[in-house]
Amino acid sequence: MTAAISGTVEPRFEPVRAAFVAAFRDRPTMGAALHVRVGGRPVVDLWGGVADERDGRPWHRDTPSVVFSCTKGLVSILAARLVEDGRLAYDAPVAQYWPRFGAAGKAGTTVAELLAHRAGLPAPRLDLSFEDILDWDRMADLLADQAPLWCPGTAYAYHAITHGWLAGEVIRRVTGRTVGGYFERAIARPLGADAWIGLPEAMRGRPAHLQVADSLAALWRNEQMKPGPNWPCRAMTLGGALPAALVTPDGGFNDPRLQAAEVPGAGGIATATALAAIWSATVTPTDGVRLIGPGAIDIATRTQSEGPPFFAAEPPYARWGMGFQLDSEARRYLSAASFGHDGAGGQVGFADPDAELGFGFVTNWMMGPEDTRATRIIDALRDALS
């Protein structure tokens, strides 16, 4: 059965449509959406498939979905705005804004190190519960008090979930608003974007229902069987608070309680249209909004972390700026100038300043390292633009 695909593309982007359609092959319960803007103007706007396999609800243009670590990119835009406004400094100690964070040998840890996964706090030393991660103050205090797993600044390892509370608490201290509240005020509302860090009650039940492909489930089962302490696995599960694949049919990020909480390391919810508009607005005026200037982008996208991480892992390796995921063999974007963030299971959002491009791809069919859906779409986009 072929998924019903709706939407429009400009003629030269027909190969992008073909790559989007191909992503549904042999995945009858998958849903997804793709939106691309160039020069602030939509050139690709596609959606299709199934938003909820339990009742067959179709995916619509305005179907939002959990975008997982794409949320880190949105939080990094907030940080870059604050730096541009002179309210935050990348080279300042985190403790300057958040005094409690200076405990346990972290007094010299800088904001740049925090954003670039160099703070030594990728996972909690304590086993946490689901209720713990719903409690912002509990998580912020726990991370502020915890001794790092390595000397901060000397190495990096991906802070899969903790990154959001760390960066988000700095933003809260600077702005006086929760990270979700500041995101709504500074980004979502000006753009009219259907994107949230903490889903409003009125939107409950609207997000797509997430499914985990067998390959991804098997990958995390194998990870859990490795001898401990398995810190990369703990970084995902937070010591038992989350399932290894981040979702179950009714749990993890399918749970409305978690969707409503502000979990800015992985819990953002957005439409593909919103993601593309937000990223577009970082590099060109979009719907009358420009979020950050080129000077701020230049500083925020300077490489801070790359190569082998602190915990042994096989290549290819990612590359990070000030929280932004940069083009690398691990995540190939449009060009070497691109910056953004992908998310667990296949989500991708990024900008390219040279092409004045914003990109958003979201899906509820979560896949593992074998996933090439977004990569093939980006390859087709690159060819179309050239």
**Please, what is the average pLDDT?**
96
User: Can you give the helix content as a percent range?
Assistant: 25-40%
How many individual β-strands?
A: 15
Query: Total number of helical segments?
Result: 13
The level 1 CATH classification is: Alpha Beta
Largest sheet: 10 strands, antiparallel
SSE ordering: EHEEEEHHHHHHEEHHHEHHEEEEEEEH
* Approximate shape: globular
Would you identify the regions where 5 or more consecutive residues have pLDDT less than 50? Answer: none
Q: Please tell me how large the radius of gyration is.
A: 19 Å
Number of domains: 1
CATH topology: Beta-lactamase
What distance lies between the first and last C-alpha atoms, to the nearest angstrom? Answer: 33 Å
CATH architecture term: 3-Layer(aba) Sandwich
What's the CATH H-level homologous superfamily? DD-peptidase/beta-lactamase superfamily
